[in-house]
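@channel sequence for tomorrow's demo:
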Amino acid sequence: MVKSRKLEDYPDVLTVLEVKEILGVGKNMVYKLLTDKKIKAKKLGHNWIIAKSNLIEFILSEV
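structure tokens (generated this afternoon):
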């Protein structure tokens, strides 16, 4: 049984895999949301960094 984590258990800066886990979507969907600028984030080298506050803002805008 997979134990689900609460949003507050995640760090303030998230990875693509953490966003994938939180939203329950695939990795490609997360990359699409990032490149379409639906979720505000910064690309650092080959990696995306996503502020948890920006993810919360996205979630609230979709409700």
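heads up for whoever presents: The radius of gyration is 11 Å.
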